[in-house]
């Protein structure tokens, strides 16, 4: 019993150290590289005193960077202020698991008949839209939302937890961060769309979760009303503060509850915006 209590205490302490907003898919590569460099300098200095001390400094530094995303507090502000945008751009990555050579969101949505051509644009297929919004109406509480997420991710529903925070909606599995959305409305849109898309794609079950997520997120671009309050959706531009820099985005927000439903960098989205 004492061993179990001690283990729980250690796990609780580690959980307190974790900063999921700066690790996992949210890990900032420029910040990580900067902190690893600082750790290397500290370890080299410690080596002049003692190899054992250097090893300890390196281990503690690596652990801090792994759990928290940074070693030195304020690193995000330092990189934002002193790293040129051209250098930061070298670290930019596409969405996790996205292979532009074999997978394209637009073509997959067309294949699923989720969207249909409308002149030079794409519109939601009316039958798909009706089924999608019908699914959204069933996701009115945390229990139903957790169940839908479990079906999408193929995880145990009892170990899933949903957490609304300012500017984001976070999913946890067995205490570990597994993903986040711009808002609860964006989350509801994604998990509600999953079974509707699955019924239209015969390879949905074999599609990796990362690809499914890209497909579902792309659908949010076509929302015309909020999944949670029913308000109208409006597109506009905004400035977003990331870990290391500020950048312009095209964003879709509910005009009633102000939930953010979709957000993409400005220079990558203008051609894809629906009329």
From TrEMBL:
Keyword Transport among record annotations: no
Keyword flag Plastid: no
Superkingdom field: Archaea
Pfam families named in the record: DUF8054_C (PF26237), DUF8054_M (PF26238), DUF8054_N (PF26236)
Membrane-spanning ranges: 28-47
Residue ranges of domain DUF8054 in the record: 14-93, 105-221, 224-264
Keywords: Membrane, Transmembrane, Transmembrane helix
InterPro entries: DUF8054_C (IPR058675), DUF8054_M (IPR058775), DUF8054_N (IPR058674)
UniProt protein name: Uncharacterized protein
Organism: Haloarchaeobius iranensis
């Amino acid at each position: 019993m004492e061993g179990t209590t001690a283990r729980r205490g250690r796990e609780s302490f580690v959980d307190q150290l974790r900063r999921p907003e700066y690790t996992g898919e949210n890990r900032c590569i420029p910040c990580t590289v900067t902190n690893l460099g600082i750790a290397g300098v500290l370890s080299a200095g410690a080596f002049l005193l003692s190899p054992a001390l250097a090893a300890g400094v390196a281990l503690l530094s690596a652990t801090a960077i792994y759990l928290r995303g940074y070693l030195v507090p304020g690193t995000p502000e330092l990189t934002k202020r002193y790293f040129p945008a051209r250098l930061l751009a070298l670290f930019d990555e596409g969405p996790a698991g996205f292979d532009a050579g074999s997978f394209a969101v637009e073509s997959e949505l067309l294949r699923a008949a989720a969207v249909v051509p409308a002149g030079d644009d794409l519109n939601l297929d009316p039958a798909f839209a009706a089924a999608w919004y019908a699914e959204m109406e069933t996701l009115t509480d945390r229990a139903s939302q957790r169940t839908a997420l479990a079906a999408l991710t193929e995880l145990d529903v009892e170990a899933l937890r949903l957490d609304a925070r300012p500017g984001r909606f976070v999913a946890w599995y067995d205490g570990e961060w597994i993903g986040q959305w711009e808002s609860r409305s964006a989350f509801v849109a994604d998990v509600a769309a999953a079974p509707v898309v699955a019924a239209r794609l015969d390879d949905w079950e074999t599609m990796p979760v990362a690809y499914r997520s890209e497909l579902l997120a792309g659908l949010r671009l076509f929302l015309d009303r909020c999944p949670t309050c029913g308000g109208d959706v409006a597109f506009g531009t905004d400035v977003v503060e990331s870990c290391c820099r500020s950048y312009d985005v095209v964003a879709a927000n509910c005009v009633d509850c102000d939930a953010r439903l979709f957000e993409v960098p400005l220079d990558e989205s203008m051609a894809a915006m629906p009329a």
